[in-house]
Amino acid sequence: MKTLKDVISLKFKTSESEGVIFHGEGQQGDYITLELKKAKLVLNLNLGSNQLGSIYGHTSVMTGSLLDDHHWHSIIIERHGRNINLTLDRHMQHFRTNGEFDYLDLDYEITFGGMPFSGKPSSNSRKNFKGCMESINYNGNNITDLAKRKKLEPSNVGNLSFSCVEPHTVPVFFNATSYLEVPGRPRQDLFSVSFLFRTWNPSGLLIFSSFADDLGNVEIGINEGKVSVHINVTKVKKNRIDISS
């Protein structure tokens, strides 16, 4: 497949921060890889490099954040030669690839949801995508529909189901005046808490708990976009511990 223009679009949702969304590579060193890294979207593209090293075609662009929130996100990649438009959730980023070549020269297959081991450096230590995809369209071909109707030949489908399993979690929404109070555990010398949260507010109280017998308290909150932990302990010399991240 030697193309001057490409249009690739799909929607995905996942709770994983790492995973290959799609990948294709060619015998002459061309490749295109879209993947999640640290919950951000990374597009790696190479339209060709020469052996002398004077033409270096590798191009990498990163966009988005917090994409492992198990919400649907849409991606559109539009390429015309070296000009690329990368659109994530309606936010478009325009860039030009490095090098001097205009054609993407791939082998006879591209893969969605993972990367087959080819022995090339590009195929090592990358995780497969874990989550849901829909509306996969590659240069006018509805990949999702073709895969479901088993019209992709030859194709290798592993552990693929045409349904999206929802996680068994129940979120709680707090407004500016709501709170949740739960009973403590008396006569225990261990305090342990874990939770996931998301907010657009730069400051706010997340958790507060007083220790029994007037021994102090612990406070976890957001202060100017950073999570802060304050532990106040009475009856000791160093009576306050502050942690910020």
Name of the top-level CATH class of the largest domain: Mainly Beta
How far apart are the termini?
48 Å
The DSSP helix count reads: 1
Using the CA coordinates, give the radius of gyration. Answer: 24 Å
> What structural category do the secondary elements indicate?
mainly beta
Q: The CATH topology of the largest domain is what? A: Jelly Rolls
- Order of adjacent strands in the largest pleated sheet: 9-8-7-2-12-13
Shape: elongated
Largest sheet: 6 strands, antiparallel
Protein name: CNTP2 protein
Pfam families: Laminin_G_2 (PF02210)
Organism: Piaya cayana
Domain Laminin G: 1-164
What this model shows, in words?
- The protein is mostly beta strands and 245 residues long.
- The protein has two domains: 2-149, Jelly Rolls; 169-244, no CATH class.
- Helix content is 2%, strand content 40%.
- A six-stranded antiparallel beta sheet has the order 9-8-7-2-12-13. A five-stranded antiparallel beta sheet has the order 6-5-4-3-11, with no helix packed on it.
- The longest helix is centred in the middle third of the chain and has 6 residues, at 143-148.
- The chain starts with a strand and ends with a strand.
- It comes from Piaya cayana (Common squirrel cuckoo).
- Residues 1-164 form the Laminin G domain.
- InterPro entries: ConA-like_dom_sf (IPR013320), Laminin_G (IPR001791), Neurexin-related_CASP (IPR050372).
Task: Give the helices and strands, then pairings.
Layout: E1 2-3, E2 5-13, E3 19-25, E4 31-37, E5 40-46, E6 59-63, E7 73-80, E8 83-88, E9 91-96, E10 104-105, E11 111-112, E12 132-138, E13 141-142, H1 143-148, E14 204-210, E15 216-223, E16 226-233, E17 240-244
Antiparallel strand pairs: 1-10, 2-7, 2-12, 3-4, 3-11, 4-5, 5-6, 7-8, 8-9, 12-13, 14-15, 15-16, 16-17
